[in-house]
Amino acid sequence: MRWDIFCRVIDNYGDIGVCWRLARQLVAEHGIAVRLWVDNVTSLQRICPDVDAFQEVQNCRGVEVRRWTEPLPELAPADVVIEAFGCELPENYVAAMVPTVSHSTGQAQSRLSLARGKVKRVWINLEYLSAEQWVEGCHGLPSPHPYLPMIKHFFFPGFTPMTGGLLREKGLLMQRDVLQHNLAELWCQLDLPLPISSETTISLFCYDSAPISNLLDAWAASTTAIRCLLPEGKALGQAANWAGRTGLAVGDSVQRGNLLLQIIPFLPQEHYDLLLWACDCNFVRGEDSFVRAQWAARPLIWQIYPQQENVHQIKLDAFLYRYCQGLAEEAVAALCTFHHNWNSGGCLDWNDFWQHHAELQSHAAAWAGQLAQLTDLASNLVSFCKNKVSSKNLNF
Ligand code: TRH
Fold it and tell me: GO molecular function, one example (predicted)?
C-alpha cells in the first residue's frame, strides 16, 4: 500500500509534528510506503534536524519527504490519501484521484484501471484532537465530494474507543518506564544535569499569550526549589522581560527566589519526549506536545491553541472533565483553576496547585494507563482504510 499525507503548516509545529509522527509510525510499524507532502520543510527540520530544508525530495527515517508546491507534479495518487487538518489537496492531484469506473467488463476494465492506477482509493480528512462528546458521532463519517464521484471520510483522534484514538508508537510506554526508573540515564541522554532530590523540575512550552511573568513570579515565590527548563521559542521574549534582560539565549539561566530558569535548545522531537518523561510537571500546548505529556504520565498543564470566540474554552473544559474523573475534589478544583487562569491570563497560585502533586502524579500515571488500553491512532487508521478498500462499493 502507498499513502500520501498532505500537511500545510499554518503556524507553529503541531500540524507537521502530528503528520511526521504518523508518517514515521506507518512506515516503521505497518510497512507502508509513505510520501509526506509539506509546504514548509523548514518547520519539519526544526523538529527533525536530519531533514534538509532545501531539498525538494528526500528520504528521512524511511519516509519520502516532498516539498508541497503548486501545481503538484503530475503523478499517480497513492492508495490512501490523508488530508491533514482540512489542508485542501492540490486541484490537479484531486483530479487524478477520480476513480476510473468503466461500464466495460473483464480485461478492458482492468487494463484501464491499471493505466490510471488503482481504482479504489481512500481519502481521509484527519481532524484535530478534541475531547468533546460530539467527536464520537462524527468520527468516520463520509462526506461526498460536491461534484466528483468521490467520498472523503472524517477521521477524528480522541480519548474513547468510538474515536480514532491517539498516536502512540509501539514500545513507547515500555521505553518510558525503563528511563523513568533510571533518571540518571534519562537526564544524561538529555545532556542536562541530574536534578537534586529536593528540586521540582518543570518543562515550559507555551504561546507568548500565556501569563508567563505571573507564572515565573509564582515559581520564584514557591515554597520549594523549582528548576524550569524553557526550550528556545516564543516564550523567550516575555521571560527576558521578566528577568529584566534585553534577551535570553540557549545556555542562559536566571535565579530568582526559589526559581532557577534555564534556557535549553529546541529539541528534536524524540528528545522532547525524553524531557517530558524526565520532568516532574510539564507545561504543554497545542495538540502534539499535549498528547505526549499524557504519555509521559506526569502532571501537566495545557495551554490550548486559542480560537475565535473562545471556542477553545469549551474544548479545554471537555478535556478537563474527562481527565479529572477519579481525582479527589480538592485536586480537581486546583487543577481546573490553574488551567483556567493559565489559559485566560489570570492569577496563578502555584503553591495551591502543587500541594496536590502526589495525587496528581498517581492520577497522571493512571490516566496514561487508561489511554493505553485504546488502540493507537495509526493502527485504527490502517484498519479503517483497509476496510474501505475491501468495501464492495467502488465509491465507498
Ligand atoms: O506548535 P503547537 O502550538 O502547534 C499547534 C497546534 O497543533 C494547534 O492545534 C494547531 O492548530 C496549530 O499548531 C497550527 O503545539 P504542538 O501541537 O504541541 O506541536 C509542537 C511540536 O513541536 C510537537 O510535535 C513537539 C515539538 N517540539 C519539539 O520537537 N522540540 C521541542 O523542544 C518542543 C518544545 C516541541
Answer: protein-arginine rhamnosyltransferase activity
Give the torsion through C-alpha atoms of 130, 31, 297, 126, to 10 deg. Answer: -10
Percent of the chain with pLDDT over 90: 90
The answer to whether 78 and 4 have CB atoms below 8 angstroms apart is: yes
Q: Span 2-166+375-388: which CATH code? A: 3.40.50
Of 14, 17, 20, the C-alpha closest to 305 is 14
Ligand 1 centre distance from Cα of residue 286 (Å):
6
Q: What is the pLDDT of residue 391?
A: 77
Query: Is the pTM here over 0.90, yes or no?
Result: yes
Is the distance from the beta carbon of residue 305 to the nearest atom of ligand 1 less than 6 Å? yes
Asked if residue 266 has its Cβ within 6 Å of ligand 1, the reply is yes
Domain extents in the chain: 2-166+375-388, 172-371
- Residue with the smallest CA separation from ligand 1 atom 27 is 269
Q: Is residue 154 within 8 Å of 140, Cβ to Cβ?
A: yes
Same fold, 2-166+375-388 and 172-371: yes
| 157 touches ligand 1 (CB under 6 Å) | no
Question: What are the pLDDT digits (tens) for 246-268?
Answer: 999 999 999 999 999 999 999 99
pLDDT tens profile 34-87: 999 999 999 999 999 999 999 999 999 999 999 999 999 999 999 999 999 999
Dist CA 332 CA 354 (whole Å): 12
Catalytic residues: 15, 287
